[in-house]
Design brief:
alpha+beta
């Protein structure tokens, strides 16, 4: 028994001497020993500055001053880890059973660079990889491969996290506070992080259920929750070592403006109806080249609900390809620039109702992304107009949008063609459209507050307008077009009554057809070939319609086809004044002028006939036309000359 006590005493003394020697050893010597051991185990350089303090039981620990840990040989020259101070502790008792239970890793102001290239991660240490490669030949290497490592507490404060892919920085976060825990090999790894952003802070909560599988490159489950100013993002699915993900995503934005600002897009203003308040969910796939695919997507954007699929390439600006469908899409307030939470329901009106608005048009939304979006909807409301069932394609590239209709339902008819809005060098709008069976009254009343003309119209229109306000665009309009209207009605003009009794006030005129072509320049529409056909009349028209000034100066000239033995009686009607209240009345000046011209001609004809009759009597001939006078005169002179000659010769 005495020998056992002595043996234990000797072991204790030896252990105490070793501990004492280590404690008495200078800090630089301790640092050198630790650096050599780290390099032997990992193949990386560990550089320690300042004092090194050790603890031995129950936690084998180390506290240092400034520290750096070198990068992989194939990675960049910057260290993988650097920090102002580092504290590391492992469970001393667990080391005897071959387990590495890290009790703590605490770093102050660390800079962590994680790099991946050709499927290799710089966090995979060299000697560990070598051990795995040689696991089939030696038992020790097999033991190294299966050695269990756990982490109870990882804490970084005021950290900078940099993630590089193939030498390029894809993420760089500063002022990050990070906490992670992986207490058991079979337990999930939990990670929480927080970083400041404009408007507050972003908090990340991530869980990897199988960390060993993830670290070895196997696709593993992943749960992520992200809370940011203005909203939150949730993901549950699978992930691999390259950061590629596949799973269900939920995005809730209670204030999209704040949420975009938190992610560095503070200058973006989302139009009303396109998601100032948004909820998006679907099956998401993310690949390492920055592509996001959404399938089975449902998007609630303000009061609009859309379904479909989308592909997004993360770039500046983003590239979006989508196919969407919806029932009723309300974009009637898309130009409203009021911020969320504003109680102002309407913008101030500097113009009266009979003038175009001079408020600036904000077309900055055209620069949000490059996109190709197909949209099918039962109805689409835009400022001032509501489309019916429509199939549209929107192509957006460098602040230029092209909306193609194939077809779109509008004013109870159909539109084919395209409309373009270009904001690259100031705003311009243009289009090339073909219309079929448009309700003319509905269209004119909506576009120009004109309520007197109705019917079904077909036609074409090419137009271009430039300006930053409605008024500037309408006053600059140029282009051309034509219109063909079937049976229709003009309110306020009764041509039957006008032609019959000379009063054109009140009543209506029903016409059988109306055709016209027109040109536009500087906001004025001009036409000179309008033709309207009625049962008893026809009407020609020409004049100007002020698209910019919202006025009209136009003359209709109806002709009574059955009057005056079929030659017709015409009574021009002049429409002049503002669109909201034009004056419509017969142009009696032209009627009087026409009548006077007819009377003068009648008098001239009567006098001419009397002269011709008198000349005929004198010449003893029948003369009805002026060109017969010369012939009759020649014949008379010849006859008189013959008579004189015969007398001279003594004949009869």
């Amino acid at each position: 028994m005495k020998w056992l006590v002595r043996l234990l005493f000797i072991f204790a003394a030896v252990f105490g001497l070793i501990i004492g020697a280590l404690l008495l050893m200078p800090a630089d010597k301790l640092g050198a020993i630790l650096a050599e051991q780290v390099k032997a185990s990992t193949g990386r350089e560990l550089t320690l500055s300042g004092d090194v303090h050790l603890s031995f039981w129950p936690v084998l620990g180390m506290e240092t001053g400034p520290v750096t840990f070198s990068n992989a040989p194939w990675a960049g020259s910057e260290p993988m880890l650097s920090a102002k101070s580092l504290s590391v502790g492992v469970d001393a008792l667990a080391l005897f059973s071959g387990e590495m239970r890290v009790k703590r890793v605490i770093a102050e102001s660390p800079v962590i660079r994680l790099e991946i290239s050709d499927g290799r991660g710089n966090w995979v240490l060299g000697n560990v990889a070598s051990a795995k490669q040689g696991s089939d030949s030696t038992g020790s290497s097999q033991q190294s491969e299966t050695a269990q490592i756990t982490l109870e507490r990882l804490e970084f404060s005021d950290a900078r996290l940099i993630y590089l892919e193939n030498g390029k920085v894809s993420m760089d976060f500063v002022d990050v506070d990070l906490y992670a825990s992986w207490p058991q090999v079979s337990a999930p790894m939990d990670l929480q992080a927080q970083m400041p952003v404009p408007g507050g802070a972003v908090q990340v909560d991530m869980k990897i259920p199988d960390l060993p599988a993830f670290s070895s490159g196997v696709v593993t489950p992943l749960q992520v929750g992200l809370l940011a100013p203005g909203g939150d993002i949730g993901f549950e699915g699978r992930v691999n070592l390259a950061g590629e993900m596949d799973g269900n995503v939920d995005i809730i934005a209670n204030d999209t403006h704040k949420m975009l600002a938190a992610f560095g897009q503070g200058g973006v203003v989302v139009p009303r109806g396109l998601g100032r308040i948004a909820k998006i969910d679907g099956q998401m796939t993310y690949t390492r080249d920055g592509r996001i695919s959404l399938r089975g997507m449902t998007a609630q954007l303000d009061d609009n609900r859309l379904n479909g699929e989308a592909d997004i390439v993360i770039s500046n600006p983003p590239q979006v390809t989508a196919r969407l469908n919806t029932r009723n899409l309300d974009l009637s307030k898309v130009s409203d620039t009021n911020t969320i939470g504003s109680t102002s329901g309407s913008a101030s009106k500097s113009e009266s109702s009979d003038k175009w608005s001079t408020d600036p048009i904000d077309a900055s939304a055209l620069s949000l992304a490059n996109a190709s979006i197909r949209l099918q909807a039962e109805s689409i409301a835009v400022p001032g107009i509501t489309f019916g069932q429509s199939d549209l394609t929107l192509d957006l590239e460098r602040s230029r949008a092209v909306l193609k209709m194939h077809p779109a339902s509008l004013f109870s008819g159909q539109l084919n063609g395209q409309v373009v809005a270009n904001n690259r060098n100031g705003l311009s709008v243009g289009g090339d459209l073909n219309a079929k069976n448009i309700d003319l009254k509905e269209a004119l009343e909506t576009l120009g507050d004109i309520k007197r003309l109705s019917g079904k119209a077909s036609g074409s229109l090419q137009f271009l307008g430039v300006g930053q306000t409605e008024e500037q665009i309408m006053r600059s309009l140029s282009g051309k077009g034509d219109i063909d209207v079937g049976k229709g009605v003009i309110s306020g003009v009764d041509l039957d009554r006008l032609m019959g009794r000379g009063s054109g006030s009140g009543g209506t005129t029903v016409f059988n057809s109306l055709t016209a072509s027109f040109s536009m320049k500087d906001g004025d529409l001009k036409n000179d070939d309008l033709l309207m056909k009625l049962d008893n009349f026809r009407a020609d028209g020409k004049g100007r319609v002020g698209l910019g000034a919202r006025d009209i100066d136009y003359v209709f000239t109806p002709v009574a086809l059955r009057a005056n033995s079929g030659d017709g009686i015409s009574v021009p009607v002049r429409i002049v004044g503002p669109w909201s209240n034009p004056s419509i009345k017969p142009d009696l000046t032209k009627v009087i002028e026409a009548a006077a011209e007819g009377k003068v001609k009648e008098l001239e004809d009567d006098a001419k006939q009397k002269v011709l009759k008198k000349v005929g009597n004198e010449l003893d001939a029948t003369i009805t036309k002026t060109d017969q006078v010369e012939d009759a005169l020649k014949k008379k002179l010849e006859d008189e000359a013959k008579k004189g000659l015969l007398k001279l010769l003594g004949g009869d």
